Amino acid sequence: MDMRSFGRRFITGLVAAFCGFALGAGTSQAQEKSRLDEILARGKLVVGVSSESPPFGFVDEKGELVGFDIDVARLIAKATFGDPNKIEFIRQSAAQRWPNAQNGTIDFGAQTTTIYADRAQRVAFTRNYIDGGIVLIVRKDAPFKTLDDLNKPNVTIANLTTPTQEERAKRLFPQAKLQTFDGIASQFNSVKLGRAQAAQLDAPVAAWYVKSNPDMRVMETRLTDVVNTGLFMKPGDFRLWQYFDLVVSEMTGGYLFADYSAIYEKWFGEKPKNAKWYLNNN
């Protein structure tokens, strides 16, 4: 075989191999559908939420599921289908969040879930849709201005039954007494009724309580840094994640911001900062 013939055969074989590879890749991509396609074909969202975490997700006096996360999920349904009612809520505990996302029981979760690196190893998070972090709530007429004012033997701090709150209270207020509660409502009421002088609450929860209890206030000094809260879903589906992350971006700083702002003000009594404004002015 002369060199020109060998060259022609080699190039022909190379082209055929490349075309075969491209065809196989195209077929594989066509077969690997995103869950987003399933959602659009189904015509509704399936969302995991809490029913025991006011003001994010809880059952009101009428027996209806309400809350900030519920309204946010409905806004996403409206953006997706043009109808906020094209949605099914799965009530789940904090522990059920991860398996329900991983096994596909839910399309995504909206459950006031803080973004941590170890959690991101199990689920995919969107960007932040509401700031979190721990603050102290006290009576409005209380004399406390600094954290040192609370570190006294005649002060009682109300905490939840979580190791992090107990550790934080002992570290920051070693001279104070501690009360421990199973629920946030009991924790808050202890301060309102004067049995405790301060309570550790997540910042949005504290804002919600102050909105309906003008005799209470939030101390300016935070106990933790501001943390991010994201929607979460099964990892590995880039198109699905990209879609919900984009919707969150538009809620917090784009064409959906007016609707999102109305939801935020409804539950927390104040308007949120537009994410674009926030980034450009800090």
Automatic annotation (TrEMBL):
UniProt GO cellular component terms: extracellular region; outer membrane-bounded periplasmic space
Entry keywords, A to Z: Signal, Transport
Gene Ontology annotations of biological process type: amino acid transport
Keyword Transport: yes
Residues annotated as signal peptide: 1-30
Pfam families: SBP_bac_3
Domain of life: Bacteria
Residue ranges occupied by any Solute-binding protein family 3/N-terminal domain in the UniProt entry: 44-271
PANTHER family hit by this protein: ABC TRANSPORTER GLUTAMINE-BINDING PROTEIN GLNH (PTHR30085:SF6), AMINO ACID ABC TRANSPORTER PERMEASE (PTHR30085)
Family: Belongs to the bacterial solute-binding protein 3 family.
Protein's UniProt name: Murein transglycosylase
Organism, scientific name: Bradyrhizobium manausense
